[in-house]
Write a structure and sequence with these properties.
This protein is an alpha+beta fold. The protein has three helices and seven strands. The structure holds nicotinamide-adenine-dinucleotide. Nicotinamide-adenine-dinucleotide binds next to strand 1, strand 2 and helix 1.
Length: 112
């Protein structure tokens, strides 16, 4: 699956990394600080990964989206590698996010 990450700080594959399939939304994250940004394109092989549905942007309840260390720990205890949810970029674009929670998920990333 082709995914994108926008950043003004360069790209590092780390636990908690957020990716989207919408390159325009990723670009909104890249330029959010007003500094020049970068758009990184990757391939995520989802084979063998446990992907859970997370809480969508603006939703008050339901499963968490892994945006705190405690939530990541809880999801990892359930064996979740990736959490997927609907998100909102800084400019208001709605898009889908995949947040990588495990080393296995990071090892499934390749440059595109
Ligand atoms: N940037 C994107 O392309 C993108 C894509 C989809 C969703 N999002 C959304 O944007 C929000 C912010 O994500 P972000 O990645 O743009 O912001 P960010 O750079 O602030 O990183 C988010 C989290 O990852 C941690 N982090 C960042 N770099 C790290 C590193 N090198 N090593 C270890 N930890 C590191 C930060 O401490 C922070 O807790 C997310 O909650 C997500 O919902 C962003």
């Amino acid at each position: 699956m082709r995914l994108y990450h926008g950043s003004s700080k360069g790209f590092t594959a780390h636990i908690g990394l957020c990716l989207t399939d919408d390159s325009a939304a990723a670009w909104e994250y890249a330029v959010r600080s007003g500094r020049p940004g970068t758009l990184t394109t990757v391939e995520l092989s989802t084979f063998g990964l446990k992907i859970a549905k997370g809480r969508d942007f603006g939703e008050g309840s339901g499963d968490a989206c892994g945006d705190t260390p405690a939530e990541i720990k809880r999801l990892r205890r359930r064996g979740v590698d990736v959490v997927e949810y609907m998100d909102e970029a800084p400019g208001g674009m709605r898009h889908r996010t995949w947040r990588l929670l495990s080393r296995k998920a990071l090892a499934s990333l390749a440059a595109a």
